Amino acid sequence: MYIIFHSVAQSAPPFALDSQTVIQAVAGLISVAVLAAALAFLLYKPVRNMLHKRTEKIHSQLTLAEQEMARAMELRQKYEQKLGNVDREREDILTEARKQAAESGKRLIGEAKTEAEAIKDRAAKSIEMEWERANVEMRSTIIEVSSVMAEKLVTVSVADDTHDKLFDEAISDLEAMKWRD
Amino acid sequence: MDISIGIHGAINIGRVTVYITDTLVSTWILMGVLIAFAIVVRIKIRKFNEVPTGFQNVVEALVELFDNYLRNTVGNRLMFLGNWFFTLFVFILLSNIGGVIPGFRPPTADWSMTIALAVVTFALIQIIGVKFQGMQYIRGLFRPMFLFFPINLIGELARPVSISFRLFGNMLAGLIIMSLIYSVAPIFARFVIPAALHAYFDIFSGVLQAYIFVTLSMSFVADAAKLEDT
Question: Is some CB atom of chain A closer than 8 A to the CB atom of B61?
């Protein structure tokens, strides 16, 4: 097989049914097939792949955005519901606080009453003790004063033997009184 | 007026002589332009952004619009044929529009090129028919009875031949009319009247014929696959 190129100075009709038409058709077909292969490799497939990848990416981003949107809507609904319940929750909290305050008040009043009773008891006991102590002191003082007066009187009017007798009686009485107390 | 195809040389491959015609030269020029564009895209695609602008916008719009057009015509199951139809569309479109360039002979104004493209469509119809319908497709050629096989076969062959002649005829007609205009128009009028006719025959008709050829090819192939889920 050999390939030779040579110049030919002639022309051919645009339409003919001969062997050269078939040869020309085959040559044209090969040329277009080469072009198709080149365009597929260099242009069509790379651009198409790029577009496909971008479409996929956009689709995935859209899906993600939709999911995020759904989640956001759910959160919004939840918060709106919570906001709607705020009044009721506030009332509950206030009622609870009032209840606790009343209980605390009652407890404090009770404690104060108990404390006051204890203080009152202690004061009464103290008063009683003071009263008893004052009685004893007063009695002693009266006795002392009486003794002094009696001594003065006896010294003036009673003989010595009578004096001694009375003194002894007085002493005996005082001792008896002391023992009684 | 000369509408014949110029031959610039010949290559002998064994006993076969391949003429280097205007059509082949135009085809190679288009190939060069398209491959150069594709190389630029391939280099720049690494720097493409998430939000397209300028050149990236053009490239993405080109591929995306064609993809949507293909999907709407043949459905998702035949999207693997996208590259062939994309090449077919771009090649025919540029061939037809190239007619506005002086001295450029549209490859589609040569029947050998349009029948070559139509033969691929014919082959695709048969391959896809067998792939998606199996023996049912082969049996369809013998319906309603065995004697109808020649008629069905002619019907099958007529489809690529008809689309090839439609494209070739339109482009050749435009070429002939433009040649006539150039040959009869006075020199001072050669820049005004032909411009409007070029806009019609090369751009309007060119885009329309490219669209028709590719859409018909897609429809035939989709029909062979009996796709109803498009």
Answer: no
